[in-house]
Amino acid sequence: MVHYVNCNKICEKTAMNQRTIKTAIAVTGTGLHSGQPVDLEFHPQPVDTGIVFERSDIVGSEPIPASAFLVQDTMMSSNLVFGGTRVGTVEHLLSAIAGLGVDNLLVRVSASEIPIMDGSAAPFVALLLDAGFCEQEAAKKFIKIIRPVRVKLEDKWAELRPYEGYELNFEIDFDHPAFDKNFQHAQLQFSTQNFIEQLSTARTFGFLRDIEALRQNNLALGGSMENAIVIDDANILNAEGLRFNDEFVRHKILDALGDLHLIGYPILGRFNAYKSGHALNNLLVREILSDEDNFEIVTFDDNVTCPIEYLPLSDLVIEG
Ligand SMILES: [Zn+2]
User: Fold this and answer.
1) Gap between the Cα atoms of 117 and 303, Å rounded
2) pLDDT, tens digit, for every residue of 247-289?
3) pLDDT number for residue 315
4) How many angstroms separate the alpha carbon of residue 90 from the centre of ligand 1?
5) Confidence class for position 314, pLDDT limits 50, 70, 90
6) Whether residue 185 lies in the annotated active site
7) Does residue 12 surpass a pLDDT of 80?
8) DSSP letters of 160-220?
9) Are 312 and 9 in contact (CB under 8 A)?
10) Any idea which positions bind Zn(2+) (predicted)?
11) How many other C-beta atoms lie within 10 A of the C-beta of residue 68?
12) Nearest-5° Cα angle at 230, 283 to 109
């Protein structure tokens, strides 16, 4: 179990600069769909690179930028396709990257999907903390929402509104015995600390009947109770139960944080969503970027306090 140093310092009085990782680091996990081992590597990158993916199993693979415009398929996960090359299931990793405020990073992966790990963002958080961070000589850029934008699909909707900080509100509506009606709404006031403690460990979930159908189509072959909360017609099947009473909706916020990060910068705004998913989250990002009157790109220097609390680099330490 990883423990994090508790810290309430705010980034005030220090310029908010971009960060990358200190050293390259690698891990091997399992592909959710293939069930096969997948190697994952993180490498430091220069300022203004952003988050870039590369396929280590394809010789001469073109870098794939983490851009909402490259999302081609939102079946169960967010999948980027660029020049015919695919990197799937990017949302939990992007959530960890957003949560820790990493601006520049190369992610190399040996298959068409990011490994599922334990179905949450926590293993990626641990890996990034292990690599360590270094501050770079350029101001961190944010995208500030200046005009509300809302998208809808049937009864589902998602919106981003102007807000001093980053807040995510999510409501789900599952009429199912395993979903307690009292725990279908959650809110995250974004900071690195809140992300790590309240969101990063929330796991993905799936219904047994859907998983069986996917397996018949050679999908979800790596899916198990090791990397998802599995629900049958009435119950949660995982012996250990839930990590939070509202773990399902917390995971939906974790997904949204990752999906929204494909906007290209950390967000200053308030996200509200009802029954949203990868497709609608992606549509929202595209809608915002479609009109320059919806946003502006901002930085914070020594004299202006950043409304988002990222833990200072020195406090991002793993204990034990
Ligand atoms: Zn997810």
Assistant:
1) 41
2) 999 999 999 999 999 999 999 999 999 999 999 999 999 999 9
3) 63
4) 9
5) low
6) no
7) no
8) EE--SSEEEEEE----STTS-GGGSEEEEE-BHHHIIIIITTPPPEEEHHHHHHHHHTT-S
9) yes
10) 92, 251, 255
11) 22
12) 55
Give the C-alpha distances (Å, rounded to integers) separating 196 from 2, 101, 123, 223, 255: 11, 12, 11, 24, 14
CATH, domain 3-319, list 3.30.70.100, 3.30.1700.10, 3.40.50.300, 3.40.190.150: 3.30.1700.10
Amino acid at 144: K
176 is an annotated ligand-binding site residue: no
**Sign of the CA dihedral running 72, 50, 4, 273:** negative
Per-residue pLDDT for 6 more than 50?
A: no
Tens of pLDDT, residues 303-313 = 778 899 887 76
Q: 104 near 20, Cβ under 8 Å?
A: yes
Q: What is the mean pLDDT of the chain?
A: 91
> Residue 47 C-alpha to ligand 1 middle, in angstroms?
29
